[in-house]
């Protein structure tokens, strides 16, 4: 076998490995995002029960309940982009947190077994979403590194692969909870 043929075979093998690596990373991101989608669906299915259970007690927080219901309806629309799902997730997380804080102001609501069960179910789903977000963010970081680093960036560009967005914590959730304010309200 001549040297140019050997070099062409080696280059061909390298290109196939780079291609397969990029496709694998893209599929990994899509697979993990699908698992997040499943967890988000579980959470969105819990929201109507939560709103129905707390709605009759929380007349003053009606706007929060309406916001959560509206966000749930938006999230359940067909053909919503992954970026919109990520943004809606952040909004729903924030709104649900507001409901949970507001529940603390209603002792009879806190003692309601339905509400306690819903809170427990919601906490479990939130933990699963959090774990799935971490896995997704790691897969997206690997994918983004692959499409931006030399030499795979050339092939990624030819394949029209673009950066993916990671799940980020909204600024409102980064702030420390003002416990004094919670007990004074």
Structural class: mainly alpha
Low-confidence stretches: none
List the secondary-structure elements in sequence, H or E: HHHHHHHH
From the 3D structure, determine the CATH topology: de novo design (two linked rop proteins)
Integer-rounded radius of gyration: 23 Å
**What's the average pLDDT?**
86
Subcellular location: Membrane
Keywords: Coiled coil, Membrane, Transmembrane, Transmembrane helix
Main location: membrane
Membrane topology: Single-pass membrane protein
Map the helices and strands:
Blueprint: H1 3-55, H2 62-75, H3 82-103, H4 107-110, H5 113-148, H6 152-158, H7 171-174, H8 179-184
Helix pairs in contact: 1-2, 1-3, 1-5, 2-3
Describe the fold and architecture.
Belongs to the LemA family. One of its GO terms (cellular component) is membrane. This protein has 8 helices and no strands. The chain has 185 residues and is mainly α. It has helices at residues 3-55, 62-75, 82-103, 107-110, 113-148, 152-158, 171-174, 179-184. 79% of the residues lie in helices and 0% in strands. It is rod-shaped and about 85 Å long. The mean pLDDT is 86. The protein has one domain (3-166): Up-down Bundle (de novo design (two linked rop proteins)).
């Amino acid at each position: 076998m001549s040297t140019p043929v050997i070099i062409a075979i080696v280059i061909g093998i390298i290109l196939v490995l780079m291609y397969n690596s990029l496709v694998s990373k893209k599929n990994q991101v899509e697979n993990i995002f699908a698992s997040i989608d499943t967890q988000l669906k579980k959470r969105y299915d819990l929201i109507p029960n939560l709103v129905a259970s707390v709605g009759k007690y929380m007349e003053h927080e009606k706007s929060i309940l309406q916001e959560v219901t509206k966000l749930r309806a938006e999230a359940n629309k067909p053909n919503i982009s992954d970026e919109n799902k990520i943004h809606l997730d952040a909004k729903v997380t924030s709104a649900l947190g507001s409901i949970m804080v507001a529940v603390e102001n209603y002792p009879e609501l806190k003692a309601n077994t339905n509400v306690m069960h819903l809170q427990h179910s919601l906490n479990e789903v939130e933990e699963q979403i959090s774990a799935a977000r971490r896995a997704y963010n790691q897969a997206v970081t690997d994918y983004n590194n692959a499409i931006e680093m030399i030499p795979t960036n050339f092939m990624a560009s030819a394949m029209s692969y673009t950066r993916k967005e990671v799940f980020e914590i909204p600024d409102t959730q980064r702030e420390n909870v003002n416990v004094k304010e919670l007990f004074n309200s």
